[in-house]
Amino acid sequence: MEPRNLTAISEFLLLGFSEESAFQPLIFGLFLSMYLITVFGNLLIILAISSDSHLHMPMYFFLANLSFVDICFTSTTIPKMLWNIQTQSKVITYEDCITQMYFFLLFAGLDNYILTVMAYDRFLAICHPLHYTVSMNPRLCGLLVLVSWIMSVLHSLLQTSVVLRLSFCTDLEIPHFFCEIKQVVQLACSDTFLNDMVMYFGAGLLGGGPLAGILYSYSKIVSSICGISSAQGKYKAFSTCASHLSVVFLFYCTSLGVYLSSTATQSSYSGATASVMYPVVTPMLNPFIYSLRNRDIKRALKKSFGKETMKGPIALGQLHLMAELKA
């Protein structure tokens, strides 16, 4: 096929999950429910943290940022997919596709970096409790989030800018429910060597670096927990990390599962179904993980809805843990 000039491209077609019209109402209802649960669940986390002064701590500051990013992450893909199902259209304009790709990469990178920052916060709280309140001050917390944003913006700009140089053939069907960068690059008729190199670089920057930081932080945390003499102290120390560790495990396992499934299967619909996990399912489950496993969040939510009157700081568990670690 003859490649067309990039400026002549006006739209792509998102094939989604299935061409069977009978399944479209079911898919619409399922993803609308998941989207609403994600948005309201993460908004509740943000509300609980912002409305209770006892939760104005570094750990919960980063959690509120993670919840905000998860809302944005899901909102880059699901509303467009729901609109296409409702209007029975598969079209996405070229400009909208590039924009969606940019914001998807941006918030995926932010998710990764904020999870790493949260691991660093737990490392300081458990391994260096004497210096925690001084080291993890509001200025450092803001700086860590700012650097995460800058890194993610630069990475997203780099990835999308090299896509803009590509020329495409007449086949503009994307076997996905959103403009996933790998699928878009595969449609190009021009040379994609630079794009492949940039994607590999991005995978190392967003995957290898943060994951190495998380693994290092938790190796030190496990070592410190093993040094605690009492079983109760070990349990308290582990309980402050359990929710974050669950989210990290879910995020990286689903991302790895999507990658393996995309290389193993030849079915475009199977690949699209597998890729639902980390941009949709993981942000939806995060509020449940943090609210069910974290007594501070549960108490703050009850207080927000007037079901419980707080008589003292709700972060007493963390303060008791830090006192025990100092001892």
Automatic annotation (TrEMBL):
Keywords: Cell membrane, G-protein coupled receptor, Membrane, Olfaction, Receptor, Sensory transduction, Transducer, Transmembrane, Transmembrane helix. GO terms for molecular function: G protein-coupled receptor activity; olfactory receptor activity. The chain crosses the membrane at residues 26-49, 61-82, 102-120, 140-158, 197-216, 237-260, 272-292. It comes from the Eukaryota. The keyword Amino-acid biosynthesis does not apply. Pfam families: 7tm_4 (PF13853). GO terms for cellular component: plasma membrane. Residues 41-290 form the G-protein coupled receptors family 1 profile domain. InterPro entries: GPCR_Rhodpsn, GPCR_Rhodpsn_7TM, Olfact_rcpt. The keyword Glycoprotein does not apply. It is a multi-pass membrane protein. It is found in: Cell membrane. Putative odorant or sperm cell receptor. Belongs to the G-protein coupled receptor 1 family. PANTHER family: OLFACTORY RECEPTOR (PTHR48001). This is Olfactory receptor.
